[in-house]
Write a structure and sequence with these properties.
The protein is an alpha+beta fold. It contains 16 helices and ten strands. The strands form three sheets. It has a five-stranded mixed β-sheet with strand order 2-4-7-6-5, with helices on both faces. The two termini are 34 Å apart. The protein binds three DNA strands through helix 2, helix 4, helix 7, helix 9 and helix 14.
DNA sequence: GCGACACCGCATGTCC
DNA sequence: GGACATGCGA
DNA sequence: GTCGC
């Protein structure tokens, strides 16, 4: 039994509970546990044997017990029981960008749709419109989401994503309307695989930049073409987002969109304790709303009394504590 | 044992 | 047409 | 479900 296998079971439990409308925090707990286990450097079986599971932050008594069950029997009774409650196709539908638990359950209950295939047929036939909260536009979005799922299954290795991103950045840099420019997301954190490419810029006149972006030769499909955000699919099948942010918020946006999500949550919690508020626009005093930082990323961390943390370390593995104590490697 | 668990913007659809 | 609600995702 | 108070 590998860490990945154990993680997968918990991830599925989370998905099913979500479709069943369970308490979102409970769902989140399973999902987070799955992620933690997957990223563990140590073998989960060894940890279970040594009874050290509960030492891992995010894993409590309940999940530790379930891990032991999986290690001992190779399966989780709760997982099997939950799987029996919903058709397997619903989990697949949940993977479609734009399809959440609510929509999945809605189309299943009202139209009996229980597979991506059936969903695609229904959307093409215009049978989805008329359902509460769904119109013609939603149908198009769903069809697009299905295409996206098929073309981007699997993440892109950094070795391929990085050159592609560099090329795009280099091309945009040539434009006089582009002031500051940076990548963000898992690419900037140098993860081994990348889900999508995020690029941020400041620009007094974004329109020509956006026009150039969506008409690059490598662009296969344009998902959105606005003045503050555009999204395209490039030939590698990867989604690339370009966002324009105000100059005074560039550092904040860079920090926010670089993540990781867990790192950001920990930062925000910390900020709240200090009477501050962090968002993608800056660091603010909670009471007066006074802006303390935002233009540069370093200031964001400085406002929280810590040194700038390199993107590669922003995974909520203790780097925030280390930074606060001044013992960043 | 009990409450909190980040914050928010965007897209879409609905209601008045 | 504009205020409001909901779902989604980051 | 997990954590901190």
């Amino acid at each position: 039994m590998t860490n990945a296998q154990v993680a997968r079971i918990f991830a599925e439990v989370a998905d099913i509970l979500e479709i069943l409308g369970e308490n979102p925090y409970r769902v989140q707990a399973y999902r987070r546990a799955a992620q933690i286990i997957e990223n563990l450097t140590e073998d989960i079986v060894d940890l279970a044997r040594r009874d050290e599971l509960e030492k891992i932050p995010g894993i409590g008594a309940s999940i530790a017990q379930k891990v032991k069950e999986i290690v001992a029997t190779g399966r989780l009774k709760q997982h099997e029981e939950l799987k029996a409650k919903i058709p397997p196709g619903l989990l697949e539908m949940l993977q479609i960008p734009g399809m959440g638990p609510k929509k999945v359950l809605l189309v299943y209950k009202r139209l009996g749709i229980d597979s991506v295939q059936k969903l695609e047929e229904a959307a093409k036939a215009g049978r989805l419109r008329g359902l509460p909260g769904m119109g013609a536009k939603t149908e198009q979005n769903i069809l697009r989401g299905i295409q996206l799922l098929r073309s981007t299954r699997g993440r892109l290795p950094l070795g391929i994503a990085l050159p592609a991103a560099n090329k795009i950045v280099a091309e945009l840099k040539e434009l006089p309307q582009v002031e500051r420019i940076t990548t963000a997301g898992s690419l900037r954190r140098m993860k081994e695989t990348i889900g999508d490419i995020d690029i941020l810029i400041t620009s007094p006149d974004p329109k020509p930049v956006m026009d150039r972006f969506v008409s690059m030769p490598m662009v296969k499909e344009v998902l959105a073409h606005g003045t503050t955000k555009s999204s395209v699919i490039i030939d590698a099948g990867t989604q690339v987002d370009l966002r324009v942010v105000p100059p005074e918020s560039f550092g904040a946006a860079q920090q926010y969109f670089t993540g990781s999500k867990d790192h950001n949550i920990r930062l925000r919690e910390l900020a709240i304790k200090k009477g501050l508020k962090i968002n993608e626009y800056g660091v603010f005093k909670a009471d007066t709303g006074e802006r303390l930082a935002g233009e540069h990323e370093e200031e964001m961390y400085a406002a929280l009394d810590m040194p700038w943390i390199p993107p590669e370390m922003r995974e909520n593995w203790g780097e925030i504590e280390a930074a606060l104590e001044g013992r960043l490697p």
